[in-house]
Amino acid sequence: MYINKAMVYGNLTRDPEMKALPNGGNVTSMSIATNRVYNDRDGKKQEEVEYHNIVVFGKQAENVAKYLTKGSGAFIEGRLQTRSWDKDGVKMYRTEIVADSVQFGAKSGDSTPAKSESPSVLPDYPAEEITEEHIPF
């Protein structure tokens, strides 16, 4: 068995574009930017940005076009697909992620994900110091 799975979390670089298919369904295309921070040979911090082409079909395509805009965060799970076509006698290629699942991330300008979407949000702890006497075991 072979695996073709892609997962990316990033921000949309442009507003999603929805189009109607001949069969009556919808397709939405968008682009997501992800980044990687690393230290180069000299120990200087570097940042590298990658851009990913995303394609979404069906009801998810409608929701993406309706609720996401440029700058929105999104977590995409899907598969890689490369299409090819001839343009003026030159073979053109485009690799994209065909989304199986799209989860909306933080709103534009918000640095933290919504509480309902992130189990890693810490609860409000009491201000007083917790000592061994407070632990029931």
Short key terms for the protein model shown above:
137 residues; OB fold (Dihydrolipoamide Acetyltransferase, E2P); mainly beta; 6 strands; 50% strand; five-stranded mixed β-barrel
Describe this structure in words.
- The chain is mostly beta strands and 137 residues long.
- The protein has one domain (6-134): Nucleic acid-binding proteins (OB fold (Dihydrolipoamide Acetyltransferase, E2P), Beta Barrel), CATH 2.40.50.
- 7% of the residues lie in helices and 50% in strands.
- The chain is built from one helix and six strands, in the order ββββαββ.
- A five-stranded mixed beta barrel has the order 1-3-4-6-5.
- The chain is extended and about 75 Å long.
Strand-helix topology:
Elements: E1 6-12, E2 17-20, E3 26-39, E4 45-57, H1 58-67, E5 73-87, E6 90-104
Parallel strand pairs: 4-6
Antiparallel strand pairs: 1-3, 1-5, 2-3, 3-4, 5-6
Low-confidence stretches: 113-119
What is the overall shape?
extended
Distance between the termini: 49 Å
Average of the residue pLDDT scores: 85
CATH class: Mainly Beta
- Write down the CATH topology: OB fold (Dihydrolipoamide Acetyltransferase, E2P)
Outline the biggest β-sheet: 5 strands, mixed, barrel
Helix content: under 10%
Structural class: mainly beta
Rg from C-alpha positions? 21 Å
Number of strands: 6
The helix count comes to 1
Structurally, the number of domains stands at: 1
CATH homologous superfamily, by name? Answer: Nucleic acid-binding proteins
% residues in beta strands: over 45%
Quick structural summary:
Helix content is 7%, strand content 50%. With 137 residues, the protein is mainly beta.
